[in-house]
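It would be a great kindness if you could assist me with a short task in structural biology. A protein sequence and the structure tokens that stand for its backbone fold form the material at issue. I should value your view on which stretches of the chain appear to form regular backbone elements. The record follows directly beneath this note.
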Amino acid sequence: MLKNLKHIISNLVKVLLVSLIGGAVTAPAVRSWYNTLNKPMFNPPDWAFSLAWTILFILMAISAYLVNKRAQDKETSDRAIRIYDAQLFLNLLWSILFFGLRSPLLAFIDVIFLWCAIVYTIKAFHKIYTPSAILLIPYILWVTFAVILNLYIVLLN
């Protein structure tokens, strides 16, 4: 039980930190610089991003928790979680590059790596517990959309 609680807390803390730091970098730029960019007609309203990311971060934390809980051995679990942590880092880096440095081009390069890291995470999680991988499907779909949106923003600006 204590091990489960540790995994629940650590996974929630990770996504919460990424969310808080990313949000702190994003919020000021959304109110100013981001509104000046040319965006494609399929760009969602600002509120949709926070709603989507809240849901995705919850799914990601649950997914990682289930991998920790279901892994047959610590080495397999640790490897999968390292991949997961790498994609979390790339996720945060995107906010820093796009909103903090105001560089859609660097963010686009990062989101390609992020997309690959998510695919790799899904594969690693699938080997341990299929429902964990399935919980990440909305994430890869959203990031696929983000790749397209980011590319359009680069091209339009």
